[in-house]
Design a protein that fits this description.
This protein has helices at 2-24, 329-345, 350-376; strands spanning 31-33, 39-42, 47-50, 56-60, 67-73, 79-87, 92-100, 106-113, 123-124, 130-135, 142-148, 154-161, 167-168, 177-182, 188-192, 195-199, 204-209, 231-236, 242-246, 251-255, 261-266, 272-279, 282-288, 300-304, 310-315, 319-321, 324-326. With 377 residues, it is α+β, with helices and mostly antiparallel strands. It folds into 3 domains: 24-114; 117-185, no CATH class; 211-319, TolB, C-terminal domain (Neuraminidase, 6 Propeller). It has a 5-stranded antiparallel sheet with strand order 13-17-16-15-14, with no helix packed on it. Strands 1-2-3-4 form a 4-stranded antiparallel sheet, with no helix packed on it. α1 packs across α2 (329-345). The protein is globular and about 80 Å long. It starts with a helix and ends with a helix.
Length: 377
């Protein structure tokens, strides 16, 4: 009992420190499904494959510090990804773009480099044009959607000064773009702050929905990063419905082709959705769960069937029995800690949170002081 209490207290303090850092590290949103129904997803470093027989295997082994945030897949079931890693020797970032066949054959489309050619990306249309978001969320001067043609010519397809405006080409404005995907009709779909945007192949930008991060009374504890800019991965189904991972508010949103918005999934703490893939009548949701002692462990995949039934298919970093994860003690402590902190933090009541932490510290000091004679015996 005392051990559980002590670990729970440590979890509270640990979540206060770890959770914001984990959120700022941009968890992976990459999840795709091939024509046979196999699921590929990133846990930020390793690319996993979950096949139609329920087997989980490593598709591309990860390396510590080498991150893969997004994944794409083509009509031949080739999987595309882009690596980014920090080089301490030069204080620069190394990037590359790669492709893997369904059989696991790996090739670099862009070799690792600290000076990548402008416009290289995993997102390409049927004509072979690549699309890349060029932005700086610190300076917030401009956000450009670039198009790189197969001959290497790079042009601004849409966007200009930082902001929000619909319209053709450089008359449109983007803010902080979080995720990108193609629809079946060939248009690009983007999450942009609290907005869902569509870019037609003539460069015309249209806002499909706004205010997507607004909370309701039914929403549970949010991540500390919740708010504008918490939208992450997205996908479009065959009917034109767009599904968006609202990471900060722990929910998956559905935006119909007529602009109606509804919540189709709320993740239970400590999990939060970061990516989604639509395949047939099913949805596959990538969720991350910051747990102690390792922040970022517990990546899992949920399936939402056409009838609305939700099933956990597989979990990385947690004990699993059949399809339901059995969280470790540290995971349960992390859930308790995060829920407690969220209830104090919600509404800006930071001073109450600080008072609570101060009380915990005094409790620990008193507990250690009472134990002092026994420890000295």
């Amino acid at each position: 009992m005392k051990l559980r209490l002590a670990l729970t207290i440590l979890a509270i303090v640990g979540q206060w420190i770890i959770l914001p850092a984990t959120t700022k590290a941009h968890p992976a949103s990459g999840i795709v499904v091939d024509s046979a129904g196999n699921i590929y997803f990133s846990d930020l470093e390793t690319i996993w494959k979950f096949d139609t027989y329920g087997n989980l295997m490593v598709f591309r082994r990860g390396e510590r510090g080498r991150h893969v945030h997004e994944l794409a897949i083509d009509e031949q079931d080739n999987v595309y990804g882009a690596d980014i890693s920090y080089n301490p020797a030069t204080t620069g970032f190394i990037t590359d773009v790669w492709k893997m066949s369904p059989e696991g054959k790996f090739i670099y489309l862009l070799e690792p480099t600290e000076r990548p050619p402008r416009g290289w990306s995993i997102w390409h249309d049927r004509a072979g044009n690549m699309y890349f978001i060029e932005q700086n969320n610190h300076t917030k001067r401009q956000t450009l959607l670039l198009r790189r043609r197969p001959d290497g010519t790079v042009t601004t397809f849409a966007g200009g000064a930082f902001g929000h405006a619909d319209g053709p080409g450089n008359l449109a404005k983007f803010g902080s773009v979080g995720g990108m995907t193609f629809g079946a009709e060939g248009s690009l779909y983007l999450t942009d702050g609290e907005f869902l945007r569509r870019v037609a192949m003539d460069g015309t930008v249209t806002t499909l929905a706004s205010g997507l991060v607004a909370r309701t009374s039914e929403d549970g504890p949010k991540l500390f990063a919740g708010g504008s800019g918490s939208l992450a991965g997205l996908d479009v189904d065959s009917d034109g419905n767009i599904f968006v991972a609202d990471t900060g508010n722990r929910r998956l949103l559905k935006v119909t082709n007529n602009g109606k918005v509804q919540v189709v999934l709320r993740s239970d703490p400590p999990y939060f959705p970061t990516g989604v893939a639509a395949a047939g009548r099913n949805l596959y949701v990538l969720e991350f769960g910051p747990t102690l002692p390792i922040a970022g462990s517990g990546t899992r995949i949920k399936k939402i069937a056409g009838d609305g039934k939700v099933t956990v298919l597989t979990t990385i970093g947690a004990q699993a029995v059949d399809t339901e994860p059995q969280p470790s003690f540290s995971t349960r402590a992390g859930v308790d800690a995060e829920s407690t902190l969220a209830s104090f933090y919600h509404g800006g009541r930071v001073k109450y949170t600080l008072a609570f932490i101060t009380g915990v510290l005094f409790f620990l000091i008193g507990y250690i002081w009472q134990r002092r004679p026994r420890l000295g015996a």
